[in-house]
């Protein structure tokens, strides 16, 4: 995560550095990205960069964490609008993310994220709501979920259900870029899988 000196930067300088980083991570995957290109675009000395971040990985995962935090806030908003319906919330969220990824300003960045998915990246995209400083947020989310129509017996089973749906969501986001799916194709496939989860795989 960023060092305190980054948070003390004026907003304009902070935004310039983030934009420069996003442009570089859109151009190439993380392992090919160059700090030299980022600082040249941002107009800062190399020494200044290391006052803000430990390395390019630190900056990259900061961008992903920001995306995750924004996603978590959106989940809360959608869940309220959907009156606690968890599956409808995930479908709405997936549609929103896919739509944003097809936006030209975001597509290259997310394409590199999802086509170079590994455990650390997946964990970053899914983890924030489970971390210590997010527990109160997560508990608030759980209280919004309407559970009377769900086949669960405990909060732990609800947690497991959410983890499964997050995994299915991330898998389908990867497919968007691997198979170059349109928004309609991606949403149709995703909804089919969510419907299967709702029905369950085994007859009584």
From TrEMBL:
Pfam family, one: TetR_C_19
Keywords: DNA-binding, Repressor
Span of domain HTH tetR-type: 11-71
DNA-binding region extent: 34-53
Entry annotated with the keyword Repressor: yes
Protein name listed in UniProt: TetR/AcrR family transcriptional regulator
